[in-house]
Amino acid sequence: MIGALLVAVFILSLIINRIFDEIKFLKLREELGLRGPPTDLFIGNCRYFYKIAIERGIEASPYICAELVHKFGSTFGSYIGREFEIVTTDPAIIKEVFISQFRNFVDRRRLSINRTYPTLDGLLQVGHKGTYGVGWKEIRSVISVIFTSASMKKMHLMFHDQIDNLIDVLRNKCRINNGKMDIYGEYQAMTMDMIARCALGQNISCIKDRNNDYYSCARTFFANLYFEKSLIFRLAIFIPIFRHLRQFTNFGRAEKIIINKLSASIRERERDRADGIIRKLPDVIDLILAENEKRVENGKIPLHHDVVVSNAWALFIAGYETTSSALAYASYLLAKHPEVQATLHEEIHSTFGDADTIDYERVMRLPYMVILTHFSIFTSRSFQHAVFCETLRFYPPVTSLTGRTCIKETVIGGKIRVPVGVGVVAPVHAVMWNEENFVRPREFIPERFLNDKRASAWSATYLPFGIGPRNCVGARFAEMEFKTVLAAVIRCFVIELDPDHIELHTVMGNVLQSPKGNQLFVRLVERRTGAEEEWESLGADSGIDDCEI
């Protein structure tokens, strides 16, 4: 009896202590002099956000943070379960956290569910000290080799078959259902083919076979990467130990299938390299393993197999979904703004004419296409450059990775104390949709990147690829892929709005901004060359095809 009473007293004391800790924790925002949405014990602001989602629908999610900025100011505090973060759209504070005080904010902001394998030691999430003693800086130095100009030129050679397949599929679909199609799904299949070829050296042809495990599992993974679709995901926010049940979620099961395939491919490649079998066109895995061998030669510890797998997975998912989303958004915006599309087509046609291939050198120098790529803004301020920059500003695919965790207490903004463990987040969409940062932010105005000095890729207000030393390592690959694919598509087709899907609605997941329903419909119309039109007027088939690349 006494023993049971003592146990009860002990448990009660733990509960009371936990409640007092929680009350103290919820006072942190006030102590830091910040405002924010109403909080509840143990769940922070989650009920507040959930209520908005229920009342206004999930399509309202991209606008919630912007509304909070309007209500509480450019810098406010937010509680997500047991995590407190400072949310800011202030360019000066963003630059301070991500650049000038980077040493104090090295680690990325991580959801509890991601603090386990396979994401924990991938470049997207790994901190200054990894699980196996290798932190983000060393991993990035290995991964960066993949994205040199020499490596990308070799990878570009792998694109041609995948793009030919895409054009064939789109051409066939143009001839049915009046050309209406889910262009997002087509781009997803094609980018999966590209990443499989460049990362794994495999030709899987998802564009023609949607039953492929890589494609189906990747779609399942991203379709379920939402709080509301996973109880374990939600529980891990409040009780971190639940993160170890990640593999039992719908996205975790899909993830595991791909992880096992990646692990087997890496093991096989390691054996091949040990036997002296080296590929003429190295893929991502080859390049990572080659850099790992150099580490050993230089007396450094080799990357653990799990670290290699984690980073192959990180590159795999990043290269698949973000580019397909960007291409889909660009297609929609070009359909909505046909005058921009016409100028783009004129430049592409004048550059490539009837050439058989879209080569790396010319596609990366397209003065108008350059607008469509973020990093080309460093050397060009052409109109084409502005189109892509504006597409990614208008519909940023990645919304949640631009956040850092304080590893050494400091002060930001001249007055805001940031304790160790507190995160600072720059909400990408809210920053780029802020009227203080961009004039008429909800209008598609590519010219802003030509005429407005504030609209610069160097600016702390333009964040589709992040900012600072931990910005997107694969941005140049994304640029190359985006430009090559879009040039091929615009070369062959006119993109029009689907009358049944005039307005595009997006939803904000835990990482990505995606089209609502994971679909984006447009209408494609095949282009005709002048020679074809002349022959057709005579009742003949010219046999000329301007779409072969």
UniProtKB/TrEMBL annotation:
Keywords: Heme, Iron, Metal-binding, Monooxygenase, Oxidoreductase. One of its GO terms (molecular function) is oxidoreductase activity, acting on paired donors, with incorporation or reduction of molecular oxygen. It comes from the Eukaryota. InterPro entries: Cyt_P450, Cyt_P450_CS, Cyt_P450_E_grp-I, Cyt_P450_sf, Insect_CytP450_Detox. Its cofactor is heme. Heme binds at residue 472. The keyword Metal-binding applies. Belongs to the cytochrome P450 family. This is Cytochrome P450. It comes from Pristionchus pacificus. The lineage of its organism: Eukaryota, Metazoa, Ecdysozoa, Nematoda, Chromadorea.
